[in-house]
Design a protein that fits this description.
The protein is about 25% helix and about 40% strand. The strands form two sheets. The chain has a five-stranded antiparallel β-sheet. Strands 3-1-8-9 form a four-stranded antiparallel β-sheet, covered by helices on one side. The protein is globular. It is an alpha+beta fold. β4 and β5 form a beta hairpin. The chain has four helices and nine strands. The protein has a single domain, classed as Cyclic Phosphodiesterase, Chain: A. The longest helix is centred in the middle third of the chain and has 16 residues. α2 crosses α3.
Length: about 180
């Protein structure tokens, strides 16, 4: 059996955006803030992929093309799991058809490579924190304070394929492939 890797396609962020996001850490008990190395925007989560399928995927991803575009990071929010906060995120400004076009083309490439695309609705965001044991009420002052905050704009000129290894301190991401437009 060939070894597999846990893969996802994402966008890396420039250092200036990562620094702004890192500075938001509210240091609340029950909330683990991610390190700047973990900040990214996931375009497609693929899960465990065998080596031969990874080769087909890389070949298909090399064909993905969209024009470069600007993407603003702004505001924060929370995803809940069974009524409890699970993920604190920074948002993407509204109305970015190029980002959604890139997502669709990546999903098409995943299918072309013979893999199952992520079928969950695409809600573009950057995960900045993971809630372990904090209430939504305890997070509300933080969410209200930064709901409209501008974290910077960056030019998307390509995307990356990452492998992800789960570790006690959070996932460790390794660059597997870069695709520049």
């Amino acid at each position: 059996m060939q070894p597999s890797k846990r893969l996802f396609v994402g966008l890396d962020l420039p250092a200036s955006c990562k620094t702004r996001l890192l500075s938001l850490d509210p240091h609340l008990a029950g909330l683990r803030w991610l390190s700047e190395e973990q900040f990214h925007l996931t375009l497609s989560f693929l899960g465990d992929v065998e080596a031969n399928a990874e080769d087909r995927l890389c070949e298909a991803l090399r064909e993905v093309q969209v024009p470069p575009f600007l993407l603003p990071l702004c505001g924060v929010g929370v995803f809940n799991d069974r009524g409890r906060p699970s993920v604190v995120w920074a948002g993407i400004g509204k109305g970015h058809p190029h980002l959604f076009a890139l997502h669709r083309r990546i999903q098409d490439a995943v299918l072309h490579a013979g893999l199952e695309p992520d079928l969950k609705p695409f809600h573009p965001h950057v995960t900045v924190g993971r809630a372990k044991s904090i209430s939504g009420q305890a997070l509300q002052p933080f969410i209200r304070r930064y709901a409209e905050t501008d974290f910077g704009m960056f030019e998307v000129t390509g995307f990356q394929l990452y492998s992800s290894v789960l570790a006690p301190g959070g996932a460790i991401h390794h660059l597997e492939m870069r695709r520049d437009f």
